[in-house]
Write a structure and sequence with these properties.
Layout: E1 19-21, E2 54-58, H1 62-74, E3 78-83, H2 86-96, E4 100-103, E5 106-107, E6 110-111, H3 113-121, E7 125-130, E8 146-148, H4 153-168
Parallel strand pairs: 1-3, 2-3, 2-4, 4-7, 7-8
Antiparallel strand pairs: 5-6
Helix pairs in contact: 1-4, 2-3
Length: about 170
Amino acid sequence: MTGKALFRHGNHPRPGAKIIASMDPLNEPDEPDEPEQHPIPHPAGAGGVIASFRVLVVEDEPLVAMELAAVVEDAGHVVIGPASTCAQALELAASHAPHIALLDGNLNGERIDEVADILSAQGIAFGFVSGYGKEHLPASHGHRPMAAKPFLPFEIENLLRVLVSESRG
């Protein structure tokens, strides 16, 4: 695995934590990631016991993306990304099969509608983490859960719990 690892405030992730893919926050090209050698099975299949979920993080602000990744990781899940553009989000979703996703509503002026529509069509539970109100998010996804920016870690943890529950059906 190549790429830049994301660690909050110089702390290393908890033992055993794994970041599947990481996009360079400066959007500089990175070497392609190796295919996942040992994919994580969907947690819902193990009699309800959660090992971890693969969580796609889509956020264009590097510091916010790092904080989201840290909260996801601290909650025991595996981070896919973060992606800072819709194209990166779609590429990571296709190559790493996330179970759930956290989406910013606006990526440097690029609306997230296409990513939300594709994730929805694939049955992937997702929520928004946005500084905009719900009225600025994709209208067809107004029912999706949302955490407002700025956020506290427990708000993202609660959002993750809702998405994990939705993902289990």
